[in-house]
Amino acid sequence: MTAASQSARPVRLSDVAERTPLVATTTSPDANTVYEQLRKRWGSIAPIDLEPGVPGWLVLGHSAAVGLLRDDHTFIKDPSIWNGHGKGLLGPGSGLHLVLAQAPKPTLADADGAKHARLRPPVDDALEQVDEARAGAITRRLCGMLIDRFEDRGRADLVAEYAAVVPFLVLSELDGLEPGQAQRLQEITRAIFEAGADARALTDELREIVTGHIALSRERGTRDIAGVLAVHPNFENDLERAQTLTAITAAATESLMAWVAQTLVIILSDPRFSHRVSGGRLHIDDALDEVLWRSTTNPNLMPRFAVRDVVLDGKLIERGDPVVVAVHAANHDPLVQSSDPWDTVGNRAYLSFGAGAHRCPAPRLGRVVARIAVAELLKRLQLTLTTDPNRVEWATSPWMRFPARLPVTFPSPRRQPAYGTWDTDPDEDDDAGWAADR
Hints:
monooxygenase; 46% helix; heme; metal-binding; three-stranded antiparallel beta sheet; single chain
């Protein structure tokens, strides 16, 4: 990325006394308002706080976002060059210890250059061999199992009891994990993020479980995701294989959870979609795309770090400064966004799957899982959202946007047919045909 020449003295992070917290962009009822206020004041790049007292830059413009994501020579994923190391910026309970770790991590998400070029092909190979029809059948079966657990109750929290569970169970089965292993890994993963800096013992246990599963998959010669990673020659050791399997599962689970939950919010609360989806005039895919345009499941990507000083849009991004791409803001950039909201229906030109070397490796597979998860729920239950859509409480993650809770009620199946008024896909024959058409 070429540095822009500026006539005035460029702004440094240290020049800005009060910075907007990054979490304000994900927890606000109207995220667009927050991004637009930043855009009006600062232009395409704004100073923010990743956490209180931890400064960084937020890229708001579409062109700047695409350029940065594709420039992996100037902006890299390796947090060891963060210029905040040694300054005592992170408290013991900070949620950024894993994000800004100084010690090198053998993970694809933090790899750059030759290392990334070595670690990315195994991920692509492992995900490409997943049969989408089988993934669809697994998703449908697991969705039915989860719905069975709460349908007699007449009420549920669709985040905790459904959207947060379906993706993990599906990915775990595609990984070849046993149910007991999958449950324990989910418990550990949640605990690690809650524990922050005090997660060493949990991390050791997670590594032991996943490394053991990799070794067993190699011994058995399985052709699931773990089995492909277990024998791929690009890895130097089983630690890299285990870290990669863990990263695939965690990233897919979090993103799909947010995608499913937000799509349900739109369908259950927005008349533009609720009436048209239930009447068969819009496909669930249209609602899925609307989420990726309007609200974006990963609104702020994990930070990149500048390898040298560079001036962009009048801001001096110094070596080691963390730079966060605001995908949500880029999707809503007035320079690329139409004023007609229906222009986004069927349009998949959003940045929600990223760009450049770290682009999402399996958007098709993710769509299969998300689509079926939403469709199965709407087919089985006649749902009513029991909270004001304008008062939905959003989770406090600075990276993800999803409702903390999604309470619904529905008639008991004893009084309501299992398959009611939602005709989510009148032309659907099977998941294999759907996948092949897209």
